Amino acid sequence: MKLTFTEYDHQNPAVWDQFQKFTFEAIRSGHRRFSADSILHRIRWKTSISTKDVRFKINNNFSADYARKFMREYPQFSNFFELRKRHHSF
Question: What are phi and psi of 50, to 5 degrees?
């Protein structure tokens, strides 16, 4: 069974911590906009190299959710990530 973003986020708080850390690093380096996918890939890289945890997985679909969460939590950066309209398939 696939986890929803909310379930995954709740079970993996370290991912959110890293997402915030790397996003603020991008902001401090002068970026006005950045890719949430790049942030997730950096988390994957760090996790696979630092911990060598082969079980660690982040669904690519969650990058937009993390971007939206970041911009909700830090409204002063509400345009940092470019978001597209969500399309739900039923």
Answer: -75, -45
